[in-house]
Amino acid sequence: MKYLLPKTALIVHNAITDAVPYPDAPVTDNDTVSTAKEISEILKNEGIKTKLFPVGNLNDLKNLQKAKTDFIFNCADDNIGDIPFSSHFIPETAEKMGITYSGGSSKNILLTTDKTATKEILLKNGISTPLFVVIEDQKRPSLSGEGLAFTDLTGFPLIVKPIASDGSEGITQKSVVKNQSQLIKAINNNFKLFHQPALVEKYIIGREINVAILEIKGPPEVLPASEITFPKEYGQKYKIVDFESKWRPETPQFNHTPAVCPAKISPSLSQILQTAVIKIWEIMDLQGYARVDFRIDKNGNPFVLEINVNPDIENNPFTGFPRAARAFGLDYKNLILTIVDSAMHRAK
Questions:
Q1: Does 3.40.50.20 match the CATH number of domain 8-103?
Q2: To bridge 244 with a disulfide, which of 175, 253, 266, 301 should be the other Cys (CB 3.0-4.6 Å)?
Q3: For the CA atoms of 154, 118, 257, 26, what is the dihedral angle to 10 degrees?
Q4: For the chain, what are the domain ranges?
Q5: Which helix (H) or strand (E) holds 293?
Q6: Phi and psi torsions of 73, nearest 5°
């Protein structure tokens, strides 16, 4: 395949800092550095002059604004250093500079980071997502979210999440609650660790399937679905992709959540998921590449849990997006070149 490529590129990634998502959590930015280095090598081999550009604070962003380049490959998939709600700053900077960049726009990232705003758009467009309420204030809770009250959630179990975090931050086995006492503890813990509203959702018991979508020279292509499986070795009560599953290699959750790609699902369910992902791409005006996470209930009904703009693309057999791309027929090198090529065509 022939690719449209820039002459120069900055590979922007999270700078390694001591900042952690919450107490006792591991630093989760290491993978963005290794990913940036590998992407840099791929682009160099195509004759592109590249430079790694770590961003960890507002000063780094100011320096980025002064940089001379034809292209920014955005490898940052979390907040900038310890600045909350800042993951959209890099595409926003590129947009102000008029420089072509990879992945989602600043608007895409801002919107999908806010789980409540995302869910409200989905519901208004007829896309199923678990019923929810938002606890805005720890001391004086107020309920919002399509006018719902706790009684509308049809009872326990429920799951409690930070309203604007990613990478399963704050999601543990204790996030799933089965009575009022556990619910209050989980909500209080959310405010203590994250200082942000708590999203309380109906917990969907069922299969965990994610579907990736990739822009290829303009139109988006839906990649083969992946299913996260939970064999008995997983060893936990609730079958969820929690923080331990993603970031703690010493845990059974991390070592026993194998993915099956392509997922073993019926053609009818596959078609339903593909249609939903394309609709989400359109109504949210997404670009670049994204991944939509679903839970499938016992009756085969899909519910959107989350929309991930710029999901992890580390060259690792356990990383979901490259795995789906391989099942589609794109090896890692061609996945990276496709991401760059698509951004260049969009700018054109």
A1: yes
A2: 253
A3: -110
A4: 8-103, 131-202, 207-347
A5: strand 289-296
A6: -95, 115
> Under 8 Å CB-to-CB from 21, ≥6 apart: which residues?
28, 165, 167, 169, 170, 243
**Rounded Cα distance, 287 and 281, in Å:** 8
In a 10 Å sphere around its CB, with 0-12 CB exposed, 13-18 middle and 19+ buried, how is residue 328 labelled? Answer: middle
Alpha helix ranges (H) inside 67-170 = 89-97, 106-113, 115-124
Q: Which amino acid is at 249?
A: P
24 pairs with which residues across the strands?
none
Model pLDDT, residue 317: 84
Count CB atoms within 10 A of the CB of residue 76.
26
**Which residues have CB under 8 Å from 275's CB, separation 6+?**
none
Distance of CA 268 to the CA centre of its chain: 26
State how far the alpha carbon of 130 is from the alpha carbons of 58, 123, 155, 274, in Å. Answer: 36, 10, 13, 19
The residues pairing with 202 across neighbouring beta strands, listed in sequence order, are 158
Output phi, psi for 160, to 5 deg. Answer: -110, 130
Task: Give the model confidence (pLDDT) of 111-126 as tens digits.
Answer: 998 889 999 999 999 9
Distance CA 10, CA 233 (A): 42
Q: What 3-state DSSP class applies to 134? A: strand
Comparing CA positions, the residue from 163, 168, 161, 261 lying closest to residue 212 is 261
pLDDT band at 146 (very low <50, low <70, confident <90, very high): very low
107 vs 15, higher pLDDT: 107
| Phi/psi at 272 (5° precision) | -60, -45
Tokens at 303, concatenated = 């519910």
Q: Cβ-count burial of 317 within 10 angstroms (0-12 exposed, 13-18 middle, 19+ buried)?
A: exposed
Rounded to an integer, the average pLDDT of 72-100 is: 89
User: Is the pLDDT score of 325 beyond 50?
Assistant: yes
Domain range 131-202, CATH class? alpha beta
| Fold adopted by 207-347 | D-amino Acid Aminotransferase; Chain A, domain 1 (3.30.470)
Q: What is the pLDDT of residues 147-175, one digit of tens each?
A: 345 555 668 899 999 887 777 888 899 99
